[in-house]
UniProtKB/TrEMBL annotation:
GO terms for cellular component: membrane. GO terms for biological process: lipid biosynthetic process. It is found in: Membrane. The chain crosses the membrane at residues 49-70, 106-131. GO terms for molecular function: iron ion binding; monooxygenase activity. It comes from Myotis myotis. This is Methylsterol monooxygenase 1.
Length: 206
């Protein structure tokens, strides 16, 4: 199931995906949060900041795990050209490209976003906090810039833009979205590690 060539404009696809997939899904979740999911939204039930932070971290771990295995599956040679190839049309990522993907990919990989919400959400503020955190993270790793003093780099095992830039350049390995541990455990970062070491040794000899 491909996308017609006329629909391949990056801005068109990003807007289409957000309007018809992401925003609609989020709207339904928030609109029915208390009635169907028993998620309160009143000020008196607002969680403490440290609990909100802990739950956002839990959501990130779950999403990263889901993303690693499903993203790796989307790279399988039998299905890659039908879905995930759209996202890899850009070998040098930039901010908007973070959301440039086949609508099916948005649904498949985006499911991981909601698993943590279903498990941890005790207030609608967590939904919006997690949306903000996830967007900041995905734009950062697709920005194409390894920004000095980036506060996200203070997070242990944070992948960052270099990790994901290599994925777009090499197409193989570095499948995780946020953290590096799954790639390290399953050895899908070996080419990235070798490339990084080569770059470091090259700088030393200059």
């Amino acid at each position: 199931m491909g996308i017609p060539d006329s629909s391949r404009d990056p801005l068109f696809l990003v807007l289409f995906t957000w309007v018809f997939v992401s925003i609609y899904t989020l709207h339904e979740k928030v609109q029915n949060s208390e009635e169907y999911f028993n998620i309160p939204y009143g000020w008196e039930r607002m969680p403490r900041w440290y609990m909100l932070l802990a739950r956002c971290f839990g959501c990130a771990v779950i999403e990263d795990t889901w993303h690693y295995f499903l993203h790796r599956l989307l790279h399988h040679k039998k299905i890659y050209k039908y879905i995930h190839k759209v996202h890899h049309e850009f070998q040098a990522p930039f901010g908007m490209e973070a959301e440039y993907a086949h609508p099916l990919e948005t649904l498949i990989l985006g499911t991981g976003f909601f698993i943590g919400i279903m498990l941890f959400c005790d207030h609608v503020i967590l939904l919006w906090a997690w949306v903000t955190v996830r967007l900041l993270e995905t734009i950062d790793v697709h920005s194409g810039y390894d920004i000095p003093l980036n506060p996200l780099n203070l997070i242990p095992f944070y992948a960052g833009s270099r990790h994901h830039d290599f994925h777009h350049m090499n197409f193989i390995g570095n499948y995780a979205s946020t953290f590096t541990w799954w790639d390290r455990i399953f050895g899908t970062d070996t080419q990235f590690v070798a490339y990084t070491e080569k770059m470091k040794s090259g700088k030393k000899t200059e």
